[in-house]
Design a protein that fits this description.
By secondary structure, the protein is of the alpha/beta class. It has 9 helices and 19 strands. Helix content is 21%, strand content 29%.
């Protein structure tokens, strides 16, 4: 495992900053150990610092919650000293897991409250999942792949000259996919092919959660990779933005819950099989080099990257930042579960035996058990969308070669801190022949 410390100037531990012209207070929470890690039974402390326009805020009235990740305890009150700091006794955990401290400050003169968070991992490399592994997991997915194989792909390509460059040609691609929850469907994406001749490695870019269009995976297309950036919802990916907004607020609202009570009809069945169809397209393309096929994604895309690598033997490498859908049944045992957190709250009609059973066939932890190709993984301890505990529950099960980079103070976010290490790993492990 590789741990990378960030410069002090960018460590804004879980801080939410306003982008208005006027400065707002900042709440910074930092554990008493540089690696943010402890052994079960060890006591940890959290230091809180409140500043306003870079000056300490004395006697700041704070509200704090503390508890296992995803299950904070009752709110407590505390006050900073004259130097704008306070120390919180975080206690300990007796078993592997994460303890999170969240502190908020409401400026007495008015304005939006600000919040800071930090989490300590207790033996995170020993975290095991709550999720079960169905005895017929492999049989189920072999049957799904067989159903996909009976559906001809019938690829359709439309040239995109406005997106093409002197380095690559771009196309809008569609492929036949298995039927979805409302009938037959297609999978759509933006394909780029390097200009010239000769083989090239391929990269399948898998999407994070939401409904949106795509413009292609340009960074890697410029570097000479065959790339295919797909959407998962069975609609073209080059339509006006208003359409995706309408879908996300309408028929695709809460799509991770669609048909969750039926493993054979669940929304992500068609999604995962669509990823396999896209991978097959790349692996049968005449320009593919025949050996290097990268599954690439973050959040929901990280889940799909791991699932694709587990089910498609031609995938040679994968990357997965803060993978979603990890150990989603963990809240049933009072532990944090990954996005989409369908069992975090006891909503009527959700925590049913049928829905719980379905998740076992789609949970990232069970795909992780079957990943044997080299992979690069990354997340932060302050991620509250895809918490670190469930990510470790999946990562710890992976039998293949794996590299993990932790950016402790980072949350569920993108940016250079995440993209640069991933790119470096890809370029090193899957170089493009020039």
């Amino acid at each position: 495992m590789r741990i990378r410390s960030l410069p002090t100037s960018v460590v804004l531990t879980g801080v939410f900053l306003c982008t208005a012209v006027f400065a707002v207070p900042v709440v910074k929470v930092v554990p008493d150990r540089p690696d943010w890690t402890a052994a079960p039974g060890e006591t940890v402390l959290f230091q809180v610092t409140v500043t306003d326009n870079d000056s300490p805020v004395a006697n700041a009235a704070l509200t704090c919650t503390l508890g296992p990740d995803g299950f904070p305890g009752p709110a407590q009150k505390l006050v900073t000293g004259s130097d704008g700091t306070a120390v919180i006794d975080g206690g300990t955990l007796s078993e592997p897991g994460f303890l999170r401290c969240a502190v908020s400050f409401a400026p007495p003169a008015g304005g939006k409250a600000v919040r800071g968070i930090a989490a300590v991992g207790f033996a995170p490399d020993k975290i095991t999942p709550v999720q079960t592994e169905p005895a017929d997991f492999d049989a189920f997915w072999n049957a799904q792949k067989a159903a996909l194989a009976k559906t001809p792909a019938k690829p359709e390509l439309v040239s995109l000259p406005d997106l093409s460059t002197p380095l690559f040609e771009a196309f809008h691609l569609s492929l036949h996919n298995v039927g979805g929850w409302r009938g037959p469907s297609r999978i759509y994406g933006i394909l780029t092919i390097p200009r010239g001749e000769g083989p090239a490695p391929a990269l399948l870019a898998l999407p994070g959660a939401g409904v949106r269009g795509y413009k292609g995976f340009i960074d890697y297309a410029n570097r000479g990779y065959i790339t295919l950036q797909i959407g998962i919802h069975g609609v073209p990916v080059n339509l006006p933005d208003e359409l995706y907004t309408s879908l996300q607020s309408g028929v695709l609202l809460n799509y991770p819950l669609i048909d969750l009570d039926n493993r054979d009809a669940y929304y992500f069945r068609r999604v995962i099989l669509g990823c396999l169809r896209a991978a097959d397209f790349l692996a049968t393309h005449p320009r593919w080099d025949g050996k290097n096929l990268i599954a690439f994604g973050g959040s929901q895309g990280g889940m799909l990257s791991i699932a694709t690598a587990a089910l498609e033997p031609r995938v040679s490498h994968l990357t997965a930042n803060y993978p979603a859908f990890c150990d989603v049944t963990a809240p049933l045992k009072n532990r944090a579960g990954g996005w989409p957190a369908m069992f975090k709250y006891d909503q009527p009609g959700v925590r049913t035996p049928e829905k719980i059973a379905t998740t076992a066939y789609y949970d990232t932890v069970n795909f992780a058990r079957r990943v044997r190709v080299p992979g690069f993984y990354m997340w932060g301890y302050n991620d509250e969308v895809c918490p670190p505990g469930p990510s470790y529950a999946a990562y710890n099960l992976i039998p293949g070669p794996k590299t993990l980079e932790i950016l402790h103070p980072r949350g569920h976010e993108s940016g250079r801190e995440f993209s640069v290490p991933v790119r470096s790993w890809v370029l090193k492990n899957v170089p493009v022949a020039r």
